[in-house]
TrEMBL record:
Organism annotation: Caenorhabditis japonica
Example of a GO MF term: glutamate:sodium symporter activity
Subcellular localization: Membrane
Entry GO CC: plasma membrane
Top-level taxon of the source organism: Eukaryota
Pfam families hit by this protein: SDF (PF00375)
Transmembrane regions: 12-39, 59-86, 166-188, 194-220
Entries under InterPro entries matching the protein: DAACS, Na-dicarboxylate_symporter, Na:dicarbo_symporter_sf
Protein name in the entry: Amino acid transporter
Coiled coil: none
Family indicated by similarity: Belongs to the dicarboxylate/amino acid:cation symporter (DAACS) (TC 2.A.23) family.
UniProt entry keywords in alphabetical sequence: Membrane, Symport, Transmembrane, Transmembrane helix, Transport
Record's bilayer topology term: Multi-pass membrane protein
């Protein structure tokens, strides 16, 4: 805002930001092209370091089951319970109307890519467009409850792989750090892996161990994106039902003013 107000004097600074944007975008594109080679190489390196592949596979399977169970509890118990307590409406009927958005999230693994479909689903459920246009974009950026749960579980899993028994204080640290890191995660596929480095650093764990989780992240990423989308949509429904009387009053007042203007 200040750069735009200053005008020509601040143009070199604006050009610097523009140049940074172009350079970083190009760097990300290069990394994405190298990804299909780099990621399998990371996994292969980690597999060569593992002495007991069967035991490691068993640990990964238990990790996946734990994450899936946690995401299921969040999506079908915790969020519906909060929704019901706050609105006194049937959360599972609301959840049923989100089927298309959930399938889109499962297919794209991106909250941002699922936004248009989520808008349509909420429109069919009767949620006020004024609520969805504000809450959904904000939710897609900051409301990453599935990602927070995944990052905390993955960090504890990596700690156990390194033979580290976490104290209660460290578990609280993991929970808080994972929640804050998930807020900064982008709404794109596998963005949680990047912010998980923050959580691992907070615990003093080696960041290289994240390559073990990459092997199963492609599947778990889709599931946690579904939970993120459900959380965003239920947040919209929550705000809509809480503010329903106020929203209806605004509509009635607007219609009354419109009729008055036409009469004049």
């Amino acid at each position: 805002m200040v750069i735009s107000r200053v005008g020509d004097d601040a143009k070199p600074l604006a050009n610097l930001f523009h140049a940074l944007d172009v350079v970083i975008t190009r760097m990300v594109m290069i990394i994405m092209w190298l990804g299909p080679i780099g990621i399998p190489s990371l996994i292969a390196q980690k597999m060569l370091e593992v002495s007991d592949l069967v035991q490691t596979a068993r640990m990964l399977a238990l990790f996946m089951i734990t994450v899936m169970l946690g995401l299921a509890i969040q999506a079908f118990v915790t969020l519906p319970l909060i929704f019901f307590i706050g609105t006194r409406h049937n959360p599972y009927r609301f959840l049923k109307g989100l089927g298309q958005a959930i399938l889109t999230a499962l297919g794209t693994s991106s909250s941002a890519a699922s936004l248009p479909v989520t808008f349509r689903c909420l429109n069919k459920l009767g949620v006020d467009p004024r609520v969805t246009k504000f809450v959904l974009p904000v939710g897609a950026m900051v409301n990453m409850d599935g990602t927070a749960l995944y990052e905390a579980t993955a960090s504890i899993f990596i700690a156990q792989m390194n033979g580290l028994d976490l104290s209660v204080g460290q578990i609280v640290t993991v929970s808080i750090t994972a929640t804050l890191a998930s807020i900064g995660a982008a709404s794109i596929p596998s963005a949680g892996l990047v912010t998980m480095l923050i959580v691992l650093t907070a615990l003093g764990l080696p960041a290289s161990d994240i390559s073990m989780v990459i092997a199963v992240d492609w599947f778990l990423d889709r599931l946690r994106t579904c939970v993120n989308v459900i959380g965003d949509a239920m947040g919209c429904g929550f705000v809509h039902y809480i503010c329903e009387d106020h929203l209806n009053a605004d509509v009635a007042e607007a219609e009354k003013n419109h009729v008055t203007v036409e009469a004049h």
